[in-house]
């Protein structure tokens, strides 16, 4: 049996350290959230209980945890839907070259390289100069789109770059209109990619801090609320909140993955039935 080279063990050890660095803080927060009623913010743990999770559902002396969660959830849905719609329309538009398409493309993705805090500052200043109210559902919504749209656009550009146009030609040969072709041919084929764009849009919005910092107005989103709690909360309740929000994020990802899996199974079954002449 051929022995493994020494470099294999070095790379394996490096990968394990990387995983520890990546997930270690989350696991630490998860463990500390189960502190007993007299527990603190550090090890060693003083008992094990669900006390701090129950405390989350009671009236908090500081902060607005559930209000900020609702705002982040609604904002995430708004950003997700808008990102998907604009990304699909832009992907369809950029399938053909047109005057200024290159400039528009680079303008769309420039916000990825601009520091997020500057985006937040700029959007907040624009709203103030225009006499508009700085609010999480308006200025916060706009600033977050500068973060999610470039990712959605890049995904859609890659998808349509590989898209086989013969499917559309076959649909038109059968008498389908342009809208029918998009609705019944294009969208079902790219559905898994649309789910990916939706996942990007929601999770990036739900977790965003810097671009919301100066654009949320007087009502915090969840990341801003958690940041504020780090300065005035001295109990493991903040760890319990971190654990629940992490589980919620994992649940959202699982829902999207299950949706992709269901679509893949449906497509495979449809292809099998079509091959049998059903």
Automatic annotation (TrEMBL):
Q: Which Gene3D superfamilies match?
A: MetI-like
Q: Is GTP-binding tagged as a keyword? A: no
Q: Which GO terms describe its cellular component?
A: plasma membrane
Alphabetized UniProt keyword annotations = Cell membrane, Membrane, Transmembrane, Transmembrane helix, Transport
PROSITE patterns registered for this protein in UniProt: ABC_TM1 (PS50928)
Q: Source organism's superkingdom? A: Bacteria
Query: What main location does UniProt list?
Result: membrane
Q: Where in the cell is it found?
A: Cell membrane
Q: Where do the TM regions start and end?
A: 73-94, 103-127, 147-163, 184-204, 237-263
- List residues of the ABC transmembrane type-1 domain: 69-256
Q: Name one GO biological process term.
A: transmembrane transport
Topology with respect to the bilayer: Multi-pass membrane protein
Q: Which InterPro entries does the entry link to?
A: Bact_Polyamine_Transport, MetI-like, MetI-like_sf
Q: Which SUPFAM superfamilies match?
A: MetI-like (SSF161098)
Per the record, the similarity remark reads: Belongs to the binding-protein-dependent transport system permease family. CysTW subfamily.
According to UniProt, the name of this protein is Inner membrane ABC transporter permease protein YdcV
**The organism of origin for this protein:** Actibacterium lipolyticum
């Amino acid at each position: 049996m051929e022995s493994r080279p020494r470099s294999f063990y070095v790379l394996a050890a490096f990968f394990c350290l990387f995983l520890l660095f990546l997930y270690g803080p989350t696991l630490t927060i998860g463990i500390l959230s189960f502190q007993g009623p007299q527990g603190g913010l550090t090890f060693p743990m003083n008992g094990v209980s669900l006390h701090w999770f129950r405390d989350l559902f009671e009236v908090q002396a500081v902060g607005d945890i559930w209000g900020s969660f609702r705002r982040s959830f609604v904002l995430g849905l708004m950003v997700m839907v808008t990102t998907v719609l604009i990304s699909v329309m832009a992907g369809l538009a950029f399938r053909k070259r047109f005057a200024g398409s290159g400039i528009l493309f680079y303008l769309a993705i420039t916000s990825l390289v601009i520091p997020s805090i500057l985006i937040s500052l700029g959007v907040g200043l624009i709203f103030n100069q225009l006499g508009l109210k700085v609010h999480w559902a308006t200025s916060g919504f706009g600033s977050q789109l500068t973060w999610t749209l470039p990712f959605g656009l890049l995904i859609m550009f890659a998808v349509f770059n590989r898209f086989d146009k013969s499917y559309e030609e076959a649909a038109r040969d059968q008498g389908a209109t342009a809208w029918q072709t998009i609705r019944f041919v294009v969208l079902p084929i790219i559905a898994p990619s649309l789910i990916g764009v939706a996942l990007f849009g929601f999770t990036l919005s739900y977790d965003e801090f810097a671009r919301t910092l100066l654009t949320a107005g007087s009502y915090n989103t969840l990341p801003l609320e958690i940041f504020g709690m780090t300065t005035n909360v001295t109990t493991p309740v903040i760890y319990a909140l971190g654990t629940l929000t992490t589980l919620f994020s994992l649940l959202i990802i699982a829902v999207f993955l299950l949706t992709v899996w269901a679509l893949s199974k449906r497509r495979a079954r449809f292809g099998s039935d079509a091959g049998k002449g059903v």
